[in-house]
Fold:
Amino acid sequence: MIAIARQRGVALITAMLIFALLGTLALNLTWDNQLDVRRTMAMLFYDEGLQAAMGAESWVQGILRQDLDDSVTDHLGEIWATEFPVLPLVSDTIQGEVFGTVEDLQGRFNVNNLIDGNGDVDVESLEQFRLLLHALGLDPRFAGIAADWLDADRDAEFPDGAEDPIYTGMIPPYRTANQTLTNVTELAALEGMDKATFDTLLPHIVALPGRTAINVNTATAPVLQSLDRNMTVADVERLLAERADGGFPDIATAFSPLVTPAVLNQLEETTDYFRLKVVVRVATVRITYFSTFHRGPRGNVIPILRSFGTI
Ligand SMILES: [Ca+2]
Ligand SMILES: [Ca+2]
Structure:
């Protein structure tokens, strides 16, 4: 009798063990299933968000094309320069919103101006970059260091240069680009560059293909101040007041007392390069999408660089 009771006890424990194992298995299956559903939903929302961002890109291309028909200059009072309002994205399956801005990239200093077509340093642009750094309260020696990063040779600028011997001694070691940049964030790798300096500089610089002029109708205040070493903060404030939202009535009248004839020749009141930043939220998914456009003389607006995230 005792043996039978013991056998029953063992059977009961075995049954309980199997039941516990089955319970754990079922819980794991349910958990995995829920994760799969969430992953699939996130992918679908991301795809919907991407479509909305591409839609915004196409819409802005149309606005920039129309702008070329409607006006002969580009300034901050135009439709493209207006931040577009938060637009709801609503359907049976999704809920979200889209908003964004378009920026004239020729209101910034193009770091690729630092070298000419032969890969040699352009002395006037180097001086302008120094003045921009000075206007921002940053160390002007970054101009020479940036010029060395871009120029074709491996001879360090004196006294402010940095070529491969500096960078190959770092941990981890790396080398200079010795060519034009496609993304200005590359300058974060410059010798001595820290985050605070780079964050201060970033809104005023850009990397555009080839040499570009500055559009004084949209240039930032420090970029205006970089046009001549005798330009004062008061001069810049007067210029900003004069251009207001409609741009300068006449560039030559406004700038000839302030800059050299050579610099005056480099100034523009039109733009070929713009950048759209669009933010899309679909349910729990958020996408930040950047698209850089080139607008040709016949109004063909072409995306030349797309990126996600911070720039
Ligand atoms: Ca225009
Ligand atoms: Ca170099």
Remarks:
- The chain is about 40% helix and 15% strand.
